[in-house]
């Protein structure tokens, strides 16, 4: 398709994923199965969604690939890094997300995806102890080694373009430090000085990806690219970045359900969300410092949809200081459920004359089944954004993310409202495709 706003999607697209665990192996297996016509990529916007372009008699509903040039599933080549040496087949079997019958037809291809040694520091994920780990003298050395991995993978697989995505364990919370994370110069200095407190391994992957011309996506809640130094780097190099944290189960429900309360001007006094989860992600998140990273990400969703400042009568009561509704999120590690997470939401709302009512949502979801299409869409749309010359934070990808990045140094607010996010997504596609952006409901 000819389009002057965006370069064509020619050649192989290398998708290199940090972490070859449950999400990544489910994602790769699904893509390979779909390529053979043996499975359907359900839940993927890039594969299914249709967007209206034009108005009135001229209106048409087109898939993304008809609006803009998208990379095809057949063009993808997979690579990965992991702390454990298991290849993608072994990892898919270990994860037990998919049944053997849905993995075996692509066994040969999965077995060829062998993880590159990880850039890892146990201080950032204490409960992992794999030995497929690089020997790095400093954080800068870590960056150099990852850069070499990307170059090697690109050459060996004859890739025209690379996208790097993080679907590895959640690291401990790294507080943005405005002496280190504020500028690219300071960030590089800290990497060279081997600052192992402020420079998480994930930052080395992100830096290396951008330095090699690859967009970077953060699928966990880590601060990694959510710092001004990384925004600066991605702007300077003309590359897109996106994050943070795949919006899969409970937060998807929250960002879609909270608008019902807000749009109808009902009150909220409390929202309690709890989960039981038994996969390795749940194990890592059982560690308080790692959970803190997730909690920050999960709490932010509601606050930007139901705003106490704007509507104190409706959203200004319920917590201990009585200036906002009570909002709590809990994740509990419970091995018997493995990847089949169960989430409960107890929502205390009120109506006319403050009379209380309750809503309960019980979502028995499958974590990686929900995350896999998000990983696919984020990779394909980041590749599109790069070809369209977009750089810096890609706010149109907020739709896929729990804690969407935004420039907090300028007082920008994240958009968490699912339907506003969908409008942003559609309009970005329209704009890149040379159509007029609009806000009509369809
Ligand atoms: N599944 C979901 O619904 C969902 C939603 C939002 C975010 N996430 C995030 O996605 C990530 C992956 O989830 P998962 O269920 O696949 O977890 P998982 O534990 O099965 O896989 C993560 C893998 O990352 C590897 N790893 C950790 N640190 C690494 C490093 N520095 N370099 C390379 N590999 C490293 C681990 O060895 C592990 O194999 C987690 O951070 C999780 O919080 C998942």
Walkthrough of the structure:
By secondary structure, the chain is α/β, with parallel strands linked by helices. It has 2 domains: 12-246 and 368-432, NAD(P)-binding Rossmann-like Domain (Rossmann fold, 3-Layer(aba) Sandwich), CATH 3.40.50; 250-364, 2-Layer Sandwich (Dihydrodipicolinate Reductase, domain 2). The protein contains 15 helices and 13 strands. It has helices spanning 22-35, 45-48, 64-67, 88-95, 107-111, 139-156, 184-192, 201-211, 228-237, 250-263, 280-285, 288-303, 312-315, 367-387, 418-432, and strands spanning 12-18, 50-53, 60-63, 76-82, 116-117, 159-166, 216-218, 240-243, 267-277, 326-333, 342-350, 356-364, 392-393. The strands form 3 sheets. The protein has a 7-stranded parallel beta sheet with strand order 5-4-1-6-7-8-13, with helices on both faces. A 4-stranded mixed beta sheet has the order 10-9-11-12. A two-stranded antiparallel sheet has the order 2-3. α1 crosses α14 and α6 (139-156) packs across α7 (184-192). The longest helix has 21 residues, at 367-387. 49% of the residues are buried. The model has no long low-confidence stretch (mean pLDDT 93). Nicotinamide-adenine-dinucleotide binds next to α1, β4, α11 and α14.
